[in-house]
Amino acid sequence: MLLYEGRQIYFGPTELAVEYFFALGFEKQARATTADFLTSITHPAERRIRDGYKDQAPRSAEEFEDRWKRSELAKALLGRLTSAASKEGHDQNNELRRHTRESRYV
Q1: What is the per-residue pLDDT for 106?
Q2: Taking the complete model, does pTM exceed 0.85, yes or no?
Q3: Three-state SS for 10?
Q4: Cα–Cα distance between 46 and 35 in angstroms, integer?
């Protein structure tokens, strides 16, 4: 998870993070590690905006958060979490029903 001023701007696999921020218009310097690159995203003086993206790349924490929430990655993550929570709730309900049926006959 990557936070910027307390706002979630990315959550997911590290290997997809560089691609995600590249698509937003940021470039990773050749010798920078992934961790250095991701940290630089939250520091205006350190992040590097790709040519042609000066007017498109997010700048404020709010803009980064908005882009993240509208991204396909965030939507897919939310879908997986919702599906898992629904399945877990369904499994718990089935277990409760089974337990209730069994306890009636004890």
Answers
A1: 41
A2: no
A3: strand
A4: 13
- 51 CB contacts (<8 Å, ≥6 apart)? none
pLDDT under 70: residue ranges of the chain: 86-106
Q: Which DSSP letter does residue 11 get?
A: -
Contact indicator for 61, 5 with CB cutoff of 8 Å: yes
Tell me what pLDDT residue 105 has.
44
C-alpha atoms less than 13 angstroms from C-alpha of 11 in its C-beta half-sphere: 13
As a whole number of angstroms, the distance between CA 1 and CA 12 comes to 7
**How confident is the model over 51-61, as pLDDT tens digits?**
999 999 999 99
What is the rounded CA–CA span in Å between residue 54 and residue 72?
22
CB 58 within 8 A of CB 24: yes
Closest CA to 44 of 67, 31, 26, 18: 26
